[in-house]
Write a structure and sequence with these properties.
The chain is α/β, with parallel strands linked by helices. It has helices spanning 8-16, 44-49, 54-60, 65-68, 114-142, 183-198, 219-227, 253-280; strands at residues 22-25, 31-35, 74-78, 145-153, 173-176, 209-211, 232-240.
Length: 281
């Protein structure tokens, strides 16, 4: 399946990222949308040694989350696959080496060489250096800002014909914010986002949106909260893959567009809440 859309902006994105593995775009406003696990690209060296095929890799990546980043004017998108470097894990865990690092899968036919690992670490270090500079600009411009950290997750791991996993433990949208050190300060904004998402009309029904049930937020969220404490709120939004068949990779673009609209509907509330917070400082 071709996951790309033939639009000028994304053709330009592909060209710009051939060597850089990501792009960080500044726009207007204090909200950033990031898709750091959408990437599917791996190096020639990784491709020669990896044991899993494209379909299995895609199952553990976050397809189409890059499309949802257009929710905000400020956007971060990554094309490097998490199987080459996982930017949402600590530096010493960003290269998967053992099955337990990657959902029990035997990743490598041959273990990665030290040169390959060094290359992944170099990508990792460049990303976080650039991320710091990028977010520092937002802090300077707006004082307070919000990062929507967009992900998706599987809920039919037992097979395409097996029953889905228990919905009590698998909400439609999991809002991870457990790495936030001062939730009370950000509580009105968080509650506004939860309210707007829960009251959104998703094809005639409401979505199950809950905090920190399936995921609590990854390393990038923890890093941002630590480095921009008091200025940044990261909401790690994990969308259950109700918008696609996680086993075939087929995507329902109508549902994706509806989720995109849901995200856009949260922006006014976020900006309004940030203004109220700013007025109190």
């Amino acid at each position: 399946m071709d996951r790309r859309v033939c639009e000028p902006e994304w053709l330009a994105r592909d060209y710009a990222m051939k060597k850089r593995q990501w792009i960080m775009c500044h726009g207007v406003g204090p909200v950033v949308a990031a898709a750091i696990h959408d990437g599917h690209d791996i190096s020639v060296e990784v491709a020669e040694r990896i044991a899993i095929d494209d379909v299995r890799r895609l199952r553990e990546e976050d397809p189409v989350t890059y499309r949802m980043t257009s929710t905000a004017d400020n956007r971060i998108t990554v094309t490097a696959s998490r199987f080459m470097v996982d930017l949402n894990r600590p530096r010493d865990k960003c290269v998967y080496r053992k099955p337990e690092d990657a959902w029990g899968m035997q990743i490598w036919r041959e273990p990665p060489t030290e040169k390959m690992v060094e290359h992944s670490l170099e990508i990792y270090d460049r990303f976080y250096k650039e991320l710091y500079d990028y977010l520092a600009v937002l802090k300077e411009r707006y004082g307070l800002f919000v990062v929507l950290d967009l992900h998706s997750y599987n809920y039919r791991r037992n097979g395409p014909d097996a029953p889905p996993e228990d919905p009590e433990r698998n909400p439609d949208i999991n809002v991870g914010n457990a790495t936030l050190r001062d939730r009370k300060r950000w509580e009105p904004l968080i509650e506004r986002v939860l309210y707007d998402m829960r009251n959104f009309d998703y094809f005639g029904r409401g979505l199950d949106v809950r905090e920190n049930v399936k995921f609590k937020g990854g390393y990038m969220a923890e890093w941002i909260h630590r480095n921009f404490e008091g200025s940044a709120l990261v909401l790690s939004l994990e969308f259950k893959k109700i918008f696609m068949d996680e086993w075939t990779g087929n995507v329902d673009l109508v549902q994706v567009e509806r989720l995109h609209t849901l995200l856009k509907c949260t922006i006014p509330g976020i900006e309004e809440s940030l203004k109220k917070m700013d007025a109190k400082i």
